[in-house]
Predict the 3D structure of the following.
Amino acid sequence: MSVETQKETLGFQTEVKQLLHLMIHSLYSNKEIFLRELISNASDAVDKLRFEALSKPELLEGGAELKIRVSFDKDAKTVTLEDNGIGMSREEAITHLGTIAKSGTADFMKHLSGDQKKDSHLIGQFGVGFYSAFIVADKVDVFSRRAGDAASEGVHWSSKGEGDFEVATVEKAERGTRIVLHLKSGEDEFADGWRLRNIIKKYSDHIALPIELPKEVAAVEGEEQPAVEWETVNRASALWTRPRTEVKDEEYQEFYKHVAHDFENPLSWSHNKVEGKLEYSSLLYVPARAPFDLYQREAPKGLKLYVQRVFVMDQAESFLPLYLRFIKGVVDSNDLSLNVSREILQKDPIIDSMKSALTKRVLDMLEKLAKNEPEQYKSFWKNFGQVMKEGPAEDFANKEKIAGLLRFASTNGDEGEQVVGLAEYLARAKEGQDKIYYLTGETYAQVKNSPHLEVFRKKGIEVLLLTDRIDEWLMSYLSDFDGKSFVDVARGDLDLGNLDSEEDKKAAQEVAKSKEGLVERLKTALGDSVAEVRVSHRLTDSPAILAIGEQDLGMQMRQILEASGQKVPESKPIFEFNPAHPLIEKLDNEQSDERFGDLSHILFDQAALAAGDSLKDPAAYVRRLNKLLVELSV
């Protein structure tokens, strides 16, 4: 052992302490996955060296054969994993092994629930697989040297998985990282060649570089102990290069866990090889749950990029649009150069062709999931639905395809569940219905009980109920689906087209004509509060509602703009009244202009409240209402 210098003891970050506590107290039901996590990290380290060595070949230090070695010592009760990848400097060891995922620390703390089963799902989301070593080890030693650094600049990191860790500078001749696990009492089963071999074959067969174990050679009595012979125990070939028929589902699932640093199986995947003008292979996955940073559009995202099986980039975001940022996987191109950079990717026309094809492949995969496994798709939508709603604005070419994948709550659905697709909506539309009707609002309860739906309930017409903050913005980019246009039932002058009989239309015109005097009185009473007053064709039970002008912003968009500090254009609502309602009949017969004005404003304010809006002058509303109550009690 080399002499250690600059030795110091440092404390773990608070989040790491909590994580280690979860690990040590049997967070995982299957302990053997510690080896999968450490091999996965070693594979990443080798990939990073390959990439950096493209521009700095001296980093290979004359040893270009990249591999991972796993060994054990039954007597010492240790398991050792060694790679000749990029390695770590002293500072990197402190940062990477003493801190969780840097930017994710606060989020990790926020998501911890204290429920071990729930918390176990967080591990993969925060890139903390290294700490799984403490499931089976009561002490972990890490010896590492970054490629390109002097042999004297090696680092020794050591911890017993408690409150702190030690770090010291040591001599290390070879670049890369060696991890020594000192097994806990009762975990001796892992210091066994047959056991380790089976774990590697089970979880890491897909790793595209050799994973070697010592070959067990019987010692001959009287002879010196033979030199260690190593043998490769995995396929050591890139899984995406193999024919689909040769790859088992379990292999696809394990590869996903490696590439996505996730602990759950994916919902779906698509493996494809393209030949012809462009040549590339892709393996794309839909995760089962959303990562913690899904809504941070600037967070790292993208596919692992390989060029002719050589790793080039970890998160190449140029191959998929932003609304599909949750997709994980790899793309391996034969047409790009090995020294490709992010800047070159953004300008390369080949990338545009690949992006278009990969986007369609993902959308096809989601369509298939929705059609064949609706329960799985329901789970997908709960996790990723709001992100998918960004699609129509970003991807005009696939707008119709994306629209078909959207799911909404509706007046025909269960309590607030977003399960109704547009194709399903149209399939059960009324005969003669040539529109898709929807209503936006803040909450499901508000839109479900909105007076705007009264005529639709009466006629049995289904209306989509949109309550996500993004919905009004989404609908500004969706004009139609399958040839049927979208209609906001709270906007403009409602026209039900063929769903209204000629008799209904004629009767409505006659009523409107008979109430022209009341319309003029209301216009005078409400003054600047309204853009227009008219007889309503939407109401059956309520006395009045407020409609939005065809070109005006709805409440959701106003709130989004106001929250972002933008100036909101001035607009006034349209006041519609139900001529058949007793309150309107009383209003029509009111002789006192003062009382008529008070009653008109009370009806206006009540309509605003029913629409989920706030009153501009609540005190005036209360004053008028109290005055009315006093008059009624006299």
In short: The domain at 240-379 is CATH 3.30.230.80 (Ribosomal Protein S5; domain 2). Confidence is low (pLDDT under 50) at residues 101-106. The chain has four domains: 5-237, 240-379, 392-499, 502-633. The chain is about 35% helix and 20% strand.
